[in-house]
Every structure is written in C-alpha cells, then in structure tokens.
Amino acid sequence: MTIREYIDTMKVSGVISTSKLSFLVELFNSTCTNENVTEDAAKKWLYPDKGRKSVTNYNSYFNEDEVNESGFYDYLKRRIHSRWGILQNSFKTTTIENIVDCETEDEVIFYRSLLAQFLQILNRPLPKDMYVEKLNANENTNVSQSNSITKQITEIFSSLLYEHGIVEVLSADYLECSLEIYKFVKVVKSKILFRFLEAQDEPVYSKIIQFIKNLENYNSFCLFTPDSCNNVLDIIHDVGDDPHQFGKSALFFRKELDKIYGEIFPEHTLFVLAKNKIDSFP
Q: What is the dihedral sign for C-alpha 120, 124, 129, 134?
C-alpha cells in the first residue's frame, strides 16, 4: 500500500471531508516529531511526476525512532468522531493489501493498526510500546526464543491452521461459507501480521498475507454459491467435458491456496483434493 492508496482508502469511506492533500498534511504533521511537512512536499508524495515512482526519505521529519502516537489518534478521532467503523469497512473492502485490523470491534486496536499501516508506508519502526512482546518461556507454545523470526511465524501459522480447522474446511466435499475462516483471518492479523510487523520484508510474511487474502476470497465465493451447487464432488463430475463453473472456480481457489501453502511450507500440501481431482481442470 502506498501513501496515496492509504489516503484514497480513507477518503472513499466518506468520513474525511477535507481534501486529500490537506488531510495528508494534517495527519502527517500530527504524527511526526521533528519538522512539519509542507503542502508542496506532500503534493509530490500524492502526485509524483508522471512516469516516475515516488521515493521519499521521511526520516528528517522524525526524531530517531520517535513517533507522536497520541497526535495521530487525537487527529483522526477529531476528524472521524464515532464513525471509525465506516473507515474500517473501507479498508476491509479495498483490494489493496494492507495490515489494518478490519475485524476488531475494539476502537483502540483499530486505530493502532491504522498507525501501524501508516508507519509501514513511511518505512518507520513502530513505537516500542506498540510491539507485542515476543514469545516467552511461560507461554503455552513450542516456539523457542532462540528460533529465527521466520520459524516463529511459520510455527504460529501452522498452529493456527490446525486450531481453526482450516485444512478440514478446504478438504470438505461441500462448499460452505465458514465462520471459522473469519476467526482465523482475524487472529492471523493480530498474532502474526501486526505482532511481527518488523518482519514485513521476510518472504513468509508476504506469503501469509497472500494466503489469507485468497482464503477470504474463497469464503466470499462460498457465501454466494447456490444451494444446488454446494457439493463440490458433484460439481466436478458434472456434464462430462463441460463441468459447472462453480466447480471450476472452487478448484481454482483451493489449488491457489495449496500452492501458497507449499511456498510457506516447502514440500508440504494442504491435500485440498485428491491429485486426480485437481488434475481434472487445467
């Protein structure tokens, strides 16, 4: 997500009445801890010269790793008032990948994830008190403090897949919108994406984002599947060489999820469908 996409997503919600440029300047200056940004500088961030990618070093606007966390929250609350749920829905419906918590019902958690997304765009570290402490010996987990951050992430992800029965959902013979998928996505965002934001450059981090985005799309697809098409095995073998479109789409989603899973856990598979069934379609 770029700084323009971030501002655009907020504006689309309808809860921000000022112009994009004014909003960016005010939001940024509420968050920075050194010099303020001018409208001329902010305009170049929003509208870089045609054909040129905007590459900006924001470090001069901050004192080392400091960020005005309360200034960010206070400014948005004055602008949004009690309509933060509308803004949350705007980030939920965008097709642009982001780490905003779109499932939480806690206003504080939502604003913190908004700040986390903003700082990620600015390539700034989170305030130290925003980091959830790393796993410790007293936690009920097999992840060791000495493990690499990648291993910590993959082991937590694997555990969450098991706890929420995601493999079973994707292996089922029927298509059904699963409440467990909603819960799984929510907990992955809080326990991995937000928790390990400093690992956003790790390949496994981006692969997990891809996985949950595809999983959300699959769940939405199942939600709108007609009752007459809810058995994927019947659909697969329907009408000879012209299988039902819903069956083809279901297999596409499942195969894509299995592919991403294999990239997170090499040489492993979700076993979403037997091989001969997967090979039924190109």
A: positive
